[in-house]
Write a structure and sequence with these properties.
With 201 residues, the chain is of the alpha+beta class. The protein folds into three domains: 41 residues, no CATH class; 31 residues; 98 residues, Immunoglobulin-like, CATH 2.60.40. The chain has five helices and ten strands; from the N terminus they run H-E-E-H-H-H-H-E-E-E-E-E-E-E-E. It has a five-stranded mixed beta sheet with strand order 4-10-9-6-7, with no helix packed on it.
Length: 201
Amino acid sequence: MNDDDYSATELGSHWFEGPTPAPTPDRVEGEVLRFGPGVTAAAARRAENTPTAAQIWHGTLPGAPPPRRPRTRRLLRYAPAAVILLVVLALLARREYGPRAEVRSVAVTAPEGTLGCDGTANVLGVVRTDGRPGTLTYHWERSDGTRSDPLRETLPRGRKEARLHLLWTFRGRGTHHAVARLVVTSPSPRTAEATFTYRCR
């Protein structure tokens, strides 16, 4: 081959230049590196959707629902209603199970003198308490062998006396020495009685 037929061909610079250094990342997000032209669209989307450490720490992940309210805040919304409910329950418990009225004394008085024909005796029983609220349970017993059904008297707070009446009516002729007895069964058992005379000729 003749030297005149030979001609040098200009080679591309990539044949004699050294290897191209690795591209420098143009963005750093946590542990995800994005490179320039070599990044495909799919890889870019994947990198963009990958949470960073900062996003995880602050709870700001892309597309994530807004953070829930802390449980303590939700509970605090119901705190006033809970307090009111507790107060009401405490008052009811005190009313039902708190200290009851204490009976201090029981006395019975009958009409003075002699009860006449077909008369009605108004017998008065007085029960004195300590002023605490409660309910008296009692009944009347009469010397003719009869007794009343169980009766109740409610005592509000501050009331220290209960006045209980027995109306005892007589008919016909004769003489009867009557005894009226008041029997308190609760809150503490107490008994008192009074006597009077019925006379009709």
